[in-house]
C-alpha cells in the first residue's frame, strides 16, 4: 500500500466515522429527550449517567450501524472524493495517469471490511441485546411482563398459552398447556403458577418446569405421559429434583418462539433462525423463511449498493456536492424499493418463494452494480 493509499484510506475512514457519530448523536439526543423521565429513574438507582447511557444506547448504536453502514459508506465516498477534488489532489493524481478505479481501491477495501464487521455484529453481537432494543427504559428497569403468542407443539400435541412472559427469567406467568394428544391421567389441561424454561441436560430434554400445578390436582401421583414411546410429561415419580406440585413438560418451543414481538424476531441471529425453521414442532411462516434468505444475501447486497453509487463518486460532469448526494439518495431509494417489493411478493407465498424473493434484488441489482463498477474503473 502506497502513501497516497494510506492518505485516502485515513481520510475516508475519518469521514465515515464523523458521519456515523453525527447520525448517532442526533438519534441519542432525540431518543433521550423523549424518554428523559425513564432514564432519570434508571440513574436514580445509584448508577452514574455515563454507565446508564452507555448500557442503554450502546446496543442502539450497534443497531444503527447495522442499518446504515452501507449508506454511510457511500456518502463518505462522495464526501472524500469531493474533498480531494476541492483541494486539487484529485486533479494531480489524474494528471499523473492514475485512474479513478485505482483511487477508489483503498476505499472499497475498507467498505468490504466494514460490511464483514456489520455482518458479524448483526448475527452474533446484536441478538443478546434484543430485550434492550425492543423495550422502553421503564420496561427494562421494572422487568415488565411481555405479551405472549400461543404456540402449538405439533410433535407432542400441546398448545402452550399463558398470561404473559418474563423473558429475562425465561418464564411464563399463569401457564396453561392444553393437551390435544392422549396422556392418561393428565386430562386435557395442565395449569400452574409459573413455567420456567430449562435447557436439555442430564438426559432430560428441554422444556418447562411448571410450578404450583393446580390441574390436574394429584400431579405428584401420576406416571409420566408419553406419545409414540417418547416421554413428554414428567412428574416427581420420574424426576426426583422436581418439588411437590411441580411437573416438567418437554418441548422445543422456547421463550423466543412464544414472544409476541416481530421486532425481536427480526433481530435474531441467523443460527437461531435456522434452528426455528428446522424445528419440526412449530410452524414456520413464509416471512421467517424470507427473512433467513435475506440475511444470507445481505452482505453482497450491501456491497452492490456501494458499487451502484460509484459513477456518482467519479462524476466528471455535475460536481455539485448536494446534487450528487440527491442522486445517491435516489439510488438508495431504488435499492430498498426493489428489496421491499420482492419481500412483499413473497410474504403471502403466492407470487414468489422466499428464496426467489431474496435472490431477485441481487439478480437485478448485481449486474447493474458490476457494470457501474467497470464504468467507474475506466474513468
Written account of the structure:
By secondary structure, the protein is α+β, with helices and mostly antiparallel strands. The chain has two domains: 3-138 and 284-378, no CATH class; 147-260, no CATH class. The chain has helices at residues 3-34, 36-43, 49-87, 89-95, 100-125, 130-133, 137-142, 255-258, 262-266, 270-278, 286-308, 310-313, 321-347, 354-378; strands spanning 151-153, 158-161, 164-166, 171-173, 176-179, 189-191, 194-198, 207-211, 225-227, 230-234, 247-250. The strands form two sheets. The protein has a seven-stranded antiparallel β-sheet, with no helix packed on it. Strand 9 and strand 10 (230-234) form a beta hairpin. The two termini are 22 Å apart. The mean pLDDT is 89.
Name some characteristics of this structure:
four-stranded antiparallel beta sheet; about 10% strand; single chain; 11 strands; seven-stranded antiparallel beta sheet; 14 helices; alpha+beta; about 60% helix; about 375 residues; 2 domains; elongated
Write the layout of secondary structure elements.
Layout: H1 3-34, H2 36-43, H3 49-87, H4 89-95, H5 100-125, H6 130-133, H7 137-142, E1 151-153, E2 158-161, E3 164-166, E4 171-173, E5 176-179, E6 189-191, E7 194-198, E8 207-211, E9 225-227, E10 230-234, E11 247-250, H8 255-258, H9 262-266, H10 270-278, H11 286-308, H12 310-313, H13 321-347, H14 354-378
Antiparallel strand pairs: 1-2, 2-5, 3-4, 4-7, 5-6, 7-8, 8-11, 9-10, 10-11
Amino acid at each position: 500500500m502506497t502513501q497516497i493509499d494510506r492518505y485516502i484510506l485515513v481520510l475516508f475512514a475519518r469521514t465515515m466515522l464523523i458521519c456515523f457519530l453525527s447520525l448517532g448523536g442526533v438519534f441519542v439526543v432525540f431518543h433521550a429527550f423523549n424518554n428523559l423521565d425513564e432514564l432519570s429513574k434508571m440513574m436514580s438507582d445509584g448508577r452514574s449517567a455515563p454507565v446508564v447511557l452507555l448500557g442503554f444506547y450502546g446496543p442502539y448504536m450497534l443497531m444503527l450501524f447495522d442499518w446504515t453502514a452501507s449508506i454511510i459508506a457511500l456518502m463518505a465516498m462522495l464526501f472524500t472524493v469531493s474533498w480531494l477534488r476541492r483541494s486539487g489532489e484529485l486533479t494531480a493524481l489524474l494528471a499523473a495517469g492514475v485512474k479513478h478505479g485505482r483511487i477508489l481501491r483503498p476505499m472499497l477495501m475498507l467498505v468490504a471490511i466494514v460490511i464483514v464487521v456489520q455482518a458479524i455484529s448483526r448475527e452474533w453481537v446484536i441478538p443478546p441485546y434484543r430485550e434492550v432494543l425492543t423495550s422502553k427504559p421503564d420496561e427494562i428497569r421494572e422487568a415488565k411482563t411481555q405479551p405472549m403468542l400461543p404456540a402449538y407443539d405439533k410433535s407432542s400435541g400441546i398448545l402452550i398459552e399463558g398470561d404473559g412472559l418474563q423473558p429475562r427469567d425465561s418464564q411464563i406467568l399463569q401457564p396453561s398447556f392444553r393437551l390435544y394428544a392422549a396422556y392418561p391421567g393428565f386430562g386435557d389441561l395442565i395449569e400452574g403458577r409459573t413455567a420456567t424454561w430449562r435447557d436439555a441436560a442430564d438426559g432430560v430434554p428441554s422444556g418447562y418446569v411448571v410450578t404450583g400445578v393446580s390441574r390436574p390436582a394429584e400431579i405428584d401421583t401420576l406416571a409420566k405421559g408419553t406419545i409414540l414411546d417418547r416421554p413428554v410429561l414428567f412428574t416427581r415419580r420420574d424426576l426426583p429434583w422436581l418439588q411437590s406440585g411441580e411437573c416438567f413438560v418437554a418441548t422445543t418451543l422456547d421463550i423466543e418462539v412464544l414472544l409476541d414481538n416481530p421486532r425481536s424476531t427480526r433481530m435474531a441471529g441467523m443460527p437461531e433462525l435456522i434452528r426455528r425453521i428446522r424445528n419440526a414442532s412449530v410452524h414456520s411462516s413464509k416471512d421467517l423463511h424470507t427473512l433467513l434468505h435475506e440475511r444470507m444475501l445481505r452482505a453482497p447486497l450491501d456491497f452492490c449498493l456501494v458499487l451502484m453509487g460509484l459513477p456518482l463518486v467519479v462524476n466528471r460532469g455535475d460536481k455539485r456536492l448536494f446534487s450528487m448526494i440527491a442522486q445517491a439518495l435516489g439510488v438508495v431509494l431504488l435499492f430498498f424499493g426493489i428489496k421491499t417489493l420482492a419481500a412483499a411478493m413473497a410474504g403471502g407465498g403466492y407470487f414468489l418463494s422466499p428464496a426467489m424473493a431474496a435472490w431477485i434484488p441481487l439478480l437485478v441489482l448485481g449486474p447493474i452494480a458490476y457494470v457501474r463498477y467497470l464504468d467507474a474503473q475506466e474513468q
